Amino acid sequence: MIRINLLPYREMEKQGTFLRGIILLAGSFVFFLLVLVSVYLYIDLSSGDLEKKIREAEVKLVVLNKKVGDTEGFKRDKKVMEQKLAVIKSLEGNRLLPFQMLDELNLLVPVKDMWLEKLNQAGDDLRIEGMARNNDVVARFMKSLEKASFIQTVDLLGTMEKEFSGVKLQQFSLVCVLKKRL
Predict the structure, then answer these.
(1) CB atoms within 10 A of CB 101
(2) Cα 111–155–171 angle (5° rounding)?
(3) What's the confidence (pLDDT) of residue 81?
(4) Looking at the domain that runs over 97-178, which CATH code has it been given?
(5) Phi, psi of 134 (to 5 degrees)
């Protein structure tokens, strides 16, 4: 016997295929949305962690900058202190220089033939004025001054004959250049 199916199975099959396609498409869309949401949440959490790390790094940077500033301040203070110590050392070394210079100058002056009236130091120049018995005494004094440890050069500015208590003496004026000391 021949059976005739009057039900539209092809249409139902087409409708089932269409329904399966829609379900598959909707499922794919939902899956795509879930993937997008999960990626968004992952990126959001990652960016939150990165922002937190950035804030921590900025706080650490502020602390380190403060330490660097303190270190720079210490370096400046150290440099100032070293300069002050150098000045103190220089002053300490040159403290006795005038006394030593006067003592040596005293030893160079011929006692009975000459006396000094005036000493004046201006920078590296030492001006010496005094009275001597004659020009030979002044010349010997100049030669002994040139050999002194603190004198570099000696120049005679002039001599002038002057009478003092009935005796003719030579008034002289010398300029000496002092040696540089550290």
Answers:
(1) 18
(2) 45
(3) 94
(4) 3.30.980.50
(5) -160, 180
Contact 124, 177 (CB under 8 A): yes
Task: Give the chain's mean pLDDT.
Answer: 86
Mean pLDDT of 100-107: 84
Name 106's Cβ contacts closer than 8 Å, sequence gap at least 6. none
Q: For residue 126, which of 104, 9, 7 has the smallest C-alpha distance?
A: 104
155/178 Cα distance (integer angstroms) = 12
Q: Reduced to 3 DSSP states, what percent helix, strand and coil does the chain have, rounded to the nearest 5?
A: 60, 25, 15
Judge whether 169 and 130 are in contact, CB under 8 Å: no
Query: Is the pLDDT assigned to residue 148 strictly greater than 80?
Result: yes
Kindly tell me if the per-residue pLDDT of 5 is higher than 90. Answer: no
C-alpha 182, offset from chain centre = 23
